[in-house]
Amino acid sequence: MRTEQAKTIYLKDYQAPDYLIDETTLTFELHEDHTLVHAQLVMRRNPEKGAGLPPLVLDGQELELLAVSLDDRELAPGDYQLDDSHLTLQPTAARFTVDSTVRIHPESNTALEGLYKSGSMFCTQCEAEGFRKITYYLDRPDVMSKFTTTVSAEQHHYPVLLSNGNPVASGSEEGGRHWATWEDPFKKPAYLFALVAGDLWCVEDSFTTMSGRNVALRIYVEPENIDKCQHAMDSLKKSMRWDEEAYGREYDLDIFMIVAVNDFNMGAMENKGLNIFNSSAVLARAETATDAAHQRVEAIVAHEYFHNWSGNRVTCRDWFQLSLKEGFTVFRDAGFSSDMNSATVKRIEDVAFLRTHQFAEDSGPMAHSVRPDSFIEISNFYTLTVYEKGSEVVGMIRTLLGAEGFRKGSDLYFERHDGQAVTCDDFVKAMEDANGVDLTQFKRWYSQSGTPRLEVSEAYDAAAQRYTLTFRQSCPPTPGQPTKEPFVIPVALGLLDAQGNDLPLRLDGEAAAGASSRVLSVTEAEQSFSFVGVAAKPLPSLLRGFSAPVKLSFPYDRDQLMFLMQHDSDGFNRWEAGQQLSVQVLQELIGQHQRGEALVLDPRLLHALRSLIEDESLDQAMVAEMLSLPGAAYLSELSEVADIDAIHAAREFARAQIGEALFAPLWRRYQANREVSRHSPYVAEESHFARRALQNIALSYLMLGNKPEVLAACVDQFDNSDNMTERLTALAVLVNSPFEAERGRALQLFAEHFKDNPLVMDQWFSVQAASYLPGGLERVKELMKHPAFTLKNPNKVRALIGAFAGQNLINFHAVDGSGYRFLADQIVTLNALNPQIAARQLSPLTRWRKYDAARQALMKAELERILASGELSSDVYEVVSKSLA
Ligand code: B3K
Ligand code: ZN
């Protein structure tokens, strides 16, 4: 396997396909111990590639070839070549038909790629290259075909048989079997193929599109989950309407289906007309899903639905262009979520996530550009860079063009490329052509990896009433990219006067002052902008709304940050000022801890937080966000060498101080909100999310004081809440508290009550795995023996192993290396079961360069042990070998 693994695929080697597949007719015969797949491919020579007839090389993996024929002539083994991953035939005419029959084994497919069983149902996951595990095919996104699919199965266990498109025929067979045929009128690449067979119930609804067409909507789930679909259905209808209004995109089939499955590698998949979802991204109701889970369901339903245009109607030419559909679709779903809920809170959450996780990826061994140049295993490139940074790149285009110009660009893109497989360059070209602009330099965001730094300095000339900002951009070297060219960095900014009002802005050379918030385009390594008519030295509010994914620095002092926290007209930047203040204060504490000094918290942080808590006119969700200290992972990201112990000590010290100093106002707000929650039924809406968010963060601070009245309130919240948001917070707070009896009781009651709900049990695993109390690894090992745990279910792996290694930094980074050893052991086991999940769980170990020498050695040793552990999947091999390089 090793030589195969090391094979790197390069974007520069892209070649259009030699052959095209006009029609694909599939027949699946599903059985308990095998499945037969018959494929008929109506093919022709790609006219773009000239006249000759090169060999036809079909992709196929783990397939048992039973028969193959070319234009109805059955081929003998000497007529074709077969290896581990290809079937090669020699066509004799420009148009021909290939028929093949293969046997596959979904019942033993633990990689959850291709056709597999999740519990008792059959389902598929084909993106990126899973279709080749179903049948021999040209498994590449630029080969688009019209699919007709017939599924046959035993009727009693598999009453529901689904595939893409519209149902066209069905019937019964001898021996208790039945069949159904589905036809998808839209040409699509094989990665969008889907099939489902199972004993499923569905919730039905309908949607009338903007042109008046009626679309049937169905969400299929296992019978016990039929009461948890309404939120997803509501989210779907909102998404359909929003895409019509915001992008002019209408749905195109007569039916749209979502199926929830328990075993799924990702969140969900946008297969044409038949989205398959991880059940965690569909099921939600008050009693079992938190507010965050409700918002995640809404966002993922929207994301997959939006792919119908950004991904399916217009798809990717090759997998290097993945961000074409993913970055754009994340940008679209973020716009939707901002419109459905608080836009500022959504932006804060996205930016906090990006800066913690994507920035770390961008400075690590797997750093790659938004459009990568090469990969070994494409599954490893469904990354934060392709998704989240890709979305930021689209967002910057919108910031530069304005809302209207951007819409003109997206309209042109969809119209020009409907039915095509295209590139990121085509997307940018549509934006350029629709607006008459040149984005050549901007496109470096697609090709250069690494997070740019933007250092800003100021100069004020009182006599000339001139205020100058100087920007210096640089980007650190990343693997394969020692040097970078300057980016186009849109910097949204404002200038505040001494009262905190935005000044009208007039750049040197402009006739008159214009808006008070504007976007400067920083395009050079060093560049200055002078504002004139500035009567007194202002305070700049920079990178409003986080207008570019850069690390901006400006020498604010703490009083200035407090001023911005109170006065900035940009909500995001008010939060950002609070974060910067917290970071400064925490870094000071980290230094004190490292020098062995007593920790002393800057009281200004307490003053700033107190005024937020006491101001009842503020949006409660914003107050909750501002009360959340920067996480340990973000503080690690900001450190040259991440001192986990010092970071943990500093954060916990600050949290305890806040809990103590602000006890009275926190307790008041907690009680008031809890009282409202107690008397109002659960509603999954913005103002209710906000109330519970403030209530819950207040509780987490209050519990640090070990006061009996708070403990009683927490236990009451655990016992007497009608919703998971309040109950789970109470549980998490108890789990991290010193109150052993209450903790044990709550954990036990929770597990008893929810033992039959795997998604809730995931939460139960997670809160324990993330608990920073000592002995974390032993608890995790013990939990792995729990009957609800299995390494075969990706959600369980993420809930327990992922939460431990990714969130429980203090325990995972134990100095004896036990956390690293544990994770490596799990990865070796997972490598054989599910390579994609194994590779994803590796990411904490890939960050080894961030830590002290002793930990570096321990982490590296575990990576080396994985590398030497035997046959590695290409997924794990790529991440481990690049991490050690
Ligand atoms: N497009 C899918 C990704 C599936 C990748 C699996 N290796 C999910 C999404 O982004 O919508
Ligand atoms: Zn997507």
Q: If you had to describe this structure to a student in words, what would you say it looks like?
A:
- Helix 4 crosses helix 6.
- The longest helix has 34 residues, at 384-417.
- It contains 28 helices and 31 strands.
- The protein is an alpha+beta fold.
- It is globular, with a radius of gyration of 28 Å.
- Among the domains are: 9-199, tricorn interacting facor f3 domain (Immunoglobulin-like, Sandwich); 755-885, Zincin-like fold (Alpha Horseshoe), CATH 1.25.50.10.
- The relative contact order is 0.07.
- 42% of the residues lie in helices and 21% in strands.
- It binds (3S)-3,7-diaminoheptanoic acid (B3K) and zinc ion.
- (3S)-3,7-diaminoheptanoic acid (B3K) binds at residues 127-128, 265-266, 268-270, 303-304, 307, 326, 379, 382.
- Residues 232-445 form the Peptidase M1 membrane alanine aminopeptidase domain.
Features:
Peptidase_M1_pepN; 42% helix; Aminopeptidase N; Zincin-like fold; 5-stranded mixed beta sheet; 885 residues; aminopeptidase; alpha+beta; globular; 8-stranded mixed beta sheet; binds (3S)-3,7-diaminoheptanoic acid; binds zinc ion; single chain; 21% strand; Immunoglobulin-like
Known CATH architecture of one domain:
Sandwich
Which of globular, elongated, flat, extended, rod-shaped describes the shape? globular
- Please report the first level of CATH classification, the CATH class of one domain: Mainly Beta
Bound molecules: (3S)-3,7-diaminoheptanoic acid, zinc ion
**Number of alpha- plus pi-helical segments:** 28
Name the beta content range.
Answer: 15-25%
For CATH, the homologous superfamily of one domain is named as tricorn interacting facor f3 domain
